[in-house]
Design goal:
Elements: H1 7-14, H2 16-46, H3 56-80, H4 88-121, H5 130-148, H6 151-154, E1 156-164, E2 167-175, H7 182-262, H8 265-285, H9 292-311, H10 314-356, H11 367-376, H12 380-394, H13 396-411
Antiparallel strand pairs: 1-2
Organism: Mytilus edulis
Pfam families: 7tm_1
Keywords: G-protein coupled receptor, Membrane, Receptor, Transducer, Transmembrane, Transmembrane helix
């Protein structure tokens, strides 16, 4: 009796190893993202009251936490039911949540780049106040909802007949568009344009910020180098003058002792008169023009000490501290934006290819192409995982509070 081959099961088993490995990595990444973003939200909401430069960090962590949960659920469901997706409602809901969370995260980064540009590149211009920060977030949420809601109608499960190993099989998959129409083509074209424009504007606004930060660091190091050189020269001058004074004092004492032992009292008086004359001549020489340099060096020492006192004043220390925090936070956001750009460009390219290639089908892809498609086209997920590590590395206050929480729990 001939065995009946279920070619649909054969198709499922064809790339089951790639799908399983990707699912395991997704679960691990989700755990890391939930712990990292959750810890960031808890610390900022309970321990760090002063926001200022850090205003957007807890908000971005909340959006990244939602994105980790929704995107991982969307991909895990796709991997598990790649050719026999069970529910149209689940497909629509997860598609909407994935696009909304990742889009809102990208728009928050755009707001951050605008805020840093105004703060760093336009220090004397208008600043983004707390009111405008809230308004910009409300606009970003409304705009993201505006282009995400149509996906509740466009997306869903699609059943099609595909040819595999010269046999026709029925496959049901979750897609962004159930039916390819002119309206869906226009919609996905606008969606791709929004993503590309957001990437371009965010990058274009933050490049001047990075240039300004890079320019400011060398000048600071040059000033430090010049100050240390001045201090070293002044210190060497002081040491040389002190050594000369000590040597002359020793020579003078030895002369007095030798003359006192060898000469008579009358001769000693004569020598004392002679030495007094030499000392008075030395005092007269100290008033000559060459001593002007010594006087200037002493005045310079006084001015340096006054400058150091001014630098050590509370106002100056608070200003330098705030400027260093501003630079550190700017560098932190630059790394976050760099991670955003790197993780968004490949998926955008793959999505454009997916909807521009006619009769695109995963069945026609080789194993290497399927591997590249699954791992590179889904790099968006990585963007929401790495941000907590970037916060912890650059934000000293967050790192300190996390250490306090860990040490407190270990003591308990």
């Amino acid at each position: 009796m001939a065995t009946v081959i279920d070619y649909k099961e054969v198709l499922k088993d064809r790339y089951s190893d790639i799908l399983l490995s990707h699912t395991i990595l997704l679960i691990i990444g989700t755990v890391i993202g939930v712990i990292g973003n959750g810890a960031t939200i808890i610390v900022y909401s309970s321990r760090i009251k002063e926001r200022g430069e850090r205003y957007f960090i807890p908000l971005l962590a909340i959006v990244d936490l939602i994105a980790c949960l929704t995107i991982s659920a969307y991909y895990v469901m796709n991997n598990t039911y790649f050719y026999d997706y069970p529910s149209n409602t689940v497909c629509c809901l997860l598609t909407f949540l994935q696009v909304f969370s990742s889009g809102l995260s990208a728009h928050i980064l755009l707001i951050i780049s605008i805020q840093r540009y105004l703060l760093v590149c336009k220090p004397f211009g208008p600043k983004m106040t707390l009111f405008w920060k809230k308004v910009s977030l409300a606009v970003a949420c409304s705009f993201t909802l505006l282009y995400s809601c149509p996906l509740l109608g466009f997306s869903g499960t699609n059943t099609s007949e595909d040819v595999f190993m010269n046999h026709t099989i029925n496959t049901t998959s979750c897609k962004f568009s159930k039916v390819d129409t002119k309206a869906t083509t226009i919609f996905f074209g606008i969606l791709a344009l929004i993503i590309v424009c957001n990437l371009f504007i965010t990058t274009a606004l933050y490049i001047p910020v990075l240039k300004r930060i890079q320019i400011s660091f060398p000048t600071k190091s040059k000033n430090i180098t010049l100050a240390t050189r001045n201090e070293q020269s002044i210190a060497s001058q002081d040491v040389s003058e002190a050594s000369l004074t000590k040597i002359s004092g020793i020579e003078l004492e030895t002369d007095i002792q030798t003359t006192g032992n060898s000469k008579s009292p009358g001769e000693n008086d004569t020598l004392n008169i002679f030495r007094n004359q030499e000392l008075s001549n030395d005092a007269d020489r100290s008033d000559d023009p060459p001593s002007y340099a010594v006087q200037q060096s002493s005045l310079h020492d006084n001015s340096i000490s006054k400058e150091e006192e001014n630098k050590d004043s509370p106002d100056h220390s608070s200003k330098s501290k705030s400027s260093s925090v501003k630079k550190r936070i700017s560098i932190m956001f630059s790394v976050i934006i760099l991670a955003y750009v790197i993780s968004y460009i490949p998926p955008v390219v793959f999505v454009i290819l997916r909807y521009t290639i006619e009769n695109f089908n995963y069945i026609t892809l080789s194993k290497a192409e399927t591997f590249a498609w699954f791992y590179i086209a889904r790099l968006i997920f990585v963007n929401h995982l790495v941000n907590p590590f970037i916060y912890c590395y650059f934000d000293v206050k967050l790192r300190r509070e996390l250490k306090k929480c860990c040490t407190h729990k270990s003591k308990l």
